Amino acid sequence: MPWKAVVGGSVGNLVEWYDWFVYSSFAVYFAASFFPEGNDTAKLLNTAAIFAVGFFMRPLGGWLLGRYADRKGRKAALTLTVTLMSASALLIAIAPTYEAVGYFGALVLVIARLLQGLSVGGEYAASATYLTEATPRGRRGFASSFQYVSMTAGQLVGLGLQIILQNSMSKEALNSYGWRIPFVVGALAAAVVFYLRRSLLETEAYDEEERETESGGQRGTIKELLAHKKEALLVIALTMGGTVAYYTYTTYLTKYLSNTAGLAKETATLVSFCALFIFMCLQPLAGALSDRIGRRPLLITFGLGSMLGTVPLMTALGGADGFGGALVLSLTGLIIITGYTSINAVVKAELFPTHVRALGVALPYAIANALFGGTAEYVALWFKDNGIESGFFWYVSGCAAVSLVVYLTMRETRDAALSRAEQAARDSVPARI
């Protein structure tokens, strides 16, 4: 295992997603700072709408930074994305409140989320492509699972910091200025990762493509992506169910346990922290399993479990009255979606050739996230605000059902060759009789 590459790609991803998720984790504290007085659900709807705005920038970020990664290299794209994320976190940290400047503070939030969306739109593809290409065949599922290990670790760091602040600061102090602390931490951490990523080596697959292609003019272009439109549509469809389920059981879960189940914010945060920690540890195990049995069995297991289990699980979570029951139910949902999260990055990367791999992963995935992942929390709160909260559970199940059809009909990608040299090496092995 090329551990330096795995760690280098993952640690930056951790900071990227720490900044991305900390917005949602601390929304319950800063919502009142940027909007006038009103009911709590309305304020959360406003902050959720701004959260969704970031997702709608992800297709643009996926196109621009995916193209950049295919033309200039995976390492260059990884360095650029973390720079953008540091700047956006700093903007949120210094954003003025509604009391001071009216809605201008909310405008600063929107601009920061636009930058975050641009950055994360490229980060996912650059990280997924780098981790996949930098690892030998037969270990790619395991290595690429660290993308969601780092994503979840970023969220855990955010939740852990929230727990510390909840227990060391008064509620008034958190609502006033304490919520700014995690954004300052994120900006500083991203600056450190910038220097770490500069020491990474470029992948052999990209170097080979750059050497053997006379002109880089066609690398990472929409024209080349359209030559693989079937694979691009496949990425959108297989992402649909997974991204809705993931954001339901991660970013939305704390609010759901607090607003619907009636758990204290501190208890809801602790439930999320413990469940996500176990979920994070499961990712490499599931990724390694996919290297042995293939990617499709895990995806199909997720599709079935999410389609059939979301309604009863979320209904039961809404009635959870303590830490233990909420933890078991939350963890059950996260175990189900592990079949998607642990391998979705490698599956997408294995679908495309090197010259358009980053763009092929970035743009379709970003579109799916903008349409389904970024709106999941807003849709959930909309159903709640209209008194039909259970409708959201059926929406999640329906998205999973669509993706399940794709998992059942798609080709297995585990043995895909990611470079000409790899294909030649495979072709040179005599067939077994």
Radius of gyration: 21 Å
Total of domains = 1
Might you state the CATH topology name?
Growth Hormone, Chain: A
Low-confidence residue ranges = none
CATH class: Mainly Alpha
Which term fits the overall shape?
globular
Helicity, as a percent range? over 70%
Question: What is the architecture at the second tier of CATH?
Answer: Up-down Bundle
Q: How far apart are the termini?
A: 31 Å
Q: How does the helix and strand content classify structurally?
A: mainly alpha
- The CATH homology group name: MFS general substrate transporter like domains
Can you count the helices? 21
Number of strands: 0
Mean pLDDT: 84
Largest sheet: none
Strand content: under 5%
H/E element order: HHHHHHHHHHHHHHHHHHHHH
Summarize the helices and strands and which ones pair or pack.
Elements: H1 3-25, H2 27-34, H3 40-72, H4 74-93, H5 98-101, H6 104-133, H7 140-144, H8 146-168, H9 171-176, H10 181-197, H11 204-212, H12 222-226, H13 229-249, H14 253-259, H15 265-293, H16 296-318, H17 323-341, H18 344-349, H19 357-385, H20 390-409, H21 420-427
Helix pairs in contact: 1-4, 1-6, 1-8, 1-10, 2-3, 3-4, 3-6, 3-19, 4-6, 4-10, 6-19, 8-15, 13-17, 13-19, 13-20, 14-15, 15-17, 16-17, 16-20, 19-20
